[in-house]
Each structure stands twice: as C-alpha cells, then as structure tokens.
Amino acid sequence: MTNSKMTNRIALEYAIDVIGDSNAEVTEKLNKMLEQLNKKNSAPRKMTAQQTKNEGIKTVLVDFLADNADTGYTVSELLKVVPELEGDSNQHISALLRSLFLEGKVTKYVEKRRSYFKIA
C-alpha cells in the first residue's frame, strides 16, 4: 500500500483482490458495490444556481472587455462602468476575473501596483 488516501474504490478493489474466488457471494456483492460507486461518480453534475450566475457574469465581463479591447480596467472601474455588476463586490468580481485569466480569456497586467484586465 502507498501513502495515498484510502478511498472507497481502493478499499473495494483491495477487498476483491484479497477475497478472490474463495467466496463468490462476497466477491459478487463487492463487485456490485464497486459498479454502483463507478456509476455514481460518472454521473453528470448539474451546476448550482450560484455557478450558473457566475457563468453569466463571466460572459458579461468577457463581452465588455472585448468591446473595449484597447483599454485595461481595474476591478473597481469595471464595477462602475458595467451596469450588470451593480451591487456585486470587489472580491467576487476579482475571483471571476482570476478564473477568466486562468482560462486564458483575459490578460492581466500590473501598473503602479494596480491590476488591469484586458481581453486576451
């Protein structure tokens, strides 16, 4: 065994290997449990309401930055000029912009210790 975290899948696979063919009924039950675990983990996930809202805000940000591609904006400036962001916090928009930056949709540059965002 390694120092990796013991998961249900690993435990079931180990139990199946140890028991082997000595007890067919137990092996069958463990295989069925492993099959159910695989089925559960492969099910498509539905996005939460907050994730859906965040994707909408990301789209608004990308569209605005694409329309104003020649200018870089700080988070505070975006909150002031984009009407859809009214009532949102600096931290929330900053997190979404960071996500867009990691996805490669937005570029970030720092000037006088202030971060500016532009469309990639």
How is this structure best described in words?
The chain is mostly helical and 120 residues long. It folds into 2 domains: 8-42; 49-119, Winged helix-like DNA-binding domain superfamily/Winged helix DNA-binding domain (Arc Repressor Mutant, subunit A, Orthogonal Bundle), CATH 1.10.10. The model has no long low-confidence stretch (mean pLDDT 88). The protein has 5 helices and 2 strands. Strand 1 (106-111) and strand 2 form a beta hairpin. Strands 1-2 form a two-stranded antiparallel ribbon. It has helices at residues 8-19, 24-42, 49-67, 75-81, 90-103, and strands spanning 106-111, 114-119.
Query: Strand percentage, roughly?
Result: 5-15%
CATH architecture of the largest domain: Orthogonal Bundle
- Rg, Cα atoms, Å: 24 Å
Characterize the main sheet: 2 strands, antiparallel
Strand line-up of the largest beta sheet = 1-2
